[in-house]
């Protein structure tokens, strides 16, 4: 069986569709040939800077052309990219740089350079900093004091743009750190071949068998229509990264934005003739649909045929509002995670339940990892089988828990998602077990209550967490953001609204109204913050 390497896949597509536009960023367009050439130059810069195959390099970057060419340059040179959340605190940033054993960092913004300068002393493995743009005085001084080399990213422009790198392997590593919304992030270790076959669906994300070799990848790219996909999420987020590689594998055009700004996204629908927009759940979906409603009479939505979400819950209320703007939209809710990639698309039934069709790579197991038979009423853990990661970097304990091996030798990925299997094999998604609230013995999944809250006309955003209750053990608490200019609902009004779709024990018993619900840059829930707010 052919073993795929992500750099080989990209180069095969670039050779097959050289003159297609691969990337559009702030008005600049690069063809596949141009993007491949710039990535080759970055790869040569990395090699010249002494970065060897299998060494780890952190990307402390916002979305940009340089972010994309650095990712490609790293895998071309067989080094390992490390994604960094650019909103990390100093402690979180230090943890990731040291935990990942990064020997180099690519950084751009002055505030990020200053943050990095303060940490060089506590990151002994760091020996190189590659700077996009001007170097700040603080970073230059700190690097000189620590004998850390500072390399200008712009030097790559003077290097050869042709290929000719050493042979690569399907065993090359891609290390993707999780969002860390409930604790410090963990590094998910993907072999390139498994990355291609699972998160990238074997180069065939819209159904059918995966590609068997690079020739099939190239042929499929030639046949794929020249569609434009906008990635609204930051590339340091797993869903955005998986989408970037997926669209490149298809030979499509990726439209990238520096930051998620709903106004610019909606305007790009017309300006860039977008066909597909990728968002991350309600955190992006709510402000996006607000802007779609405001601009529905002056923006041409005719090119847009799909909005796709991944990485967070996308409520029915938000989807219904999008369909009211354009009823023909295909709304795709992808199920997946950093640890599993793309697991397929949810459908939503008339009760609002999320359902996954029967799959050969997804089962539901009990606490002893025994598979639950179809039609069993018992709730269990959704488990993935097949191409799954090697585990978490430098964390054998969490690897054993999340990626257990059954007695028959089958490795599973069990992330805590709860579900049940219906008689036809359909899996009904109940929620993330880590966010399950136990109130008087009844289980309440936070995502289900959040979806109900998001359907309230005054609620701009909401998170649901548990707070202690003397009698019930825990009770359901809501942290809510209200739309500007709307009347602030009372707790009783919120409860009455939720009773339309939720059982009584799932209704929020307390509510805190905040100016802004805090989320990660990718729009994912920050439950640590919400728990602290609710407890106060």
Automatic annotation (TrEMBL):
<protein>
    <submittedName>
        <fullName>Acyl-CoA synthetase</fullName>
    </submittedName>
</protein>
<dbReference type="Pfam" id="PF13193">
    <property type="entry name" value="AMP-binding_C"/>
</dbReference>
<feature type="domain" description="AMP-binding enzyme C-terminal">
    <location>
        <begin position="448"/>
        <end position="524"/>
    </location>
</feature>
<dbReference type="InterPro" id="IPR050237">
    <property type="entry name" value="ATP-dep_AMP-bd_enzyme"/>
</dbReference>
<dbReference type="Pfam" id="PF00501">
    <property type="entry name" value="AMP-binding"/>
</dbReference>
<feature type="domain" description="AMP-dependent synthetase/ligase">
    <location>
        <begin position="10"/>
        <end position="382"/>
    </location>
</feature>
<dbReference type="InterPro" id="IPR045851">
    <property type="entry name" value="AMP-bd_C_sf"/>
</dbReference>
<dbReference type="InterPro" id="IPR025110">
    <property type="entry name" value="AMP-bd_C"/>
</dbReference>
<dbReference type="InterPro" id="IPR020845">
    <property type="entry name" value="AMP-binding_CS"/>
</dbReference>
<dbReference type="InterPro" id="IPR000873">
    <property type="entry name" value="AMP-dep_synth/lig_dom"/>
</dbReference>
<dbReference type="InterPro" id="IPR042099">
    <property type="entry name" value="ANL_N_sf"/>
</dbReference>
